[in-house]
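Look at one such:
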Amino acid sequence: MLYYFMTPYAEPAPGPQARFNGALARIRARIEMTFGQLKARFTCLRGLRVAPNRACDITVACAVLHNAATIRKERVPVVRVHPEGDLEPVHLDEQTGRAARDRIAHHHFG
């Protein structure tokens, strides 16, 4: 199975590309907010210095505990959200990734 890192269009055309960039920015902000909540609730995640497999296990355990706390309606840590303008886009020159991004933009936002 192939995975692609979705990147915004550097100079989006009006229409599907611009809508794709907007949706990607909103999703990225939500993901970063969730990471912030996890790090606020579980301070051990702020500077893990363990092997990647161990870091993955710790992160998954924290996510499970976070979900349990959410279900129990426990207080959610306050996280500062960065405005969209503070997010720096990452541009990769992967042709197949670009093709996948184009298909998503035109299928979902066209």
The two ends are 26 Å apart (CA to CA). The first helix runs from residue 16 to 41. The mean pLDDT is 82. The chain is about 55% helix and 0% strand.
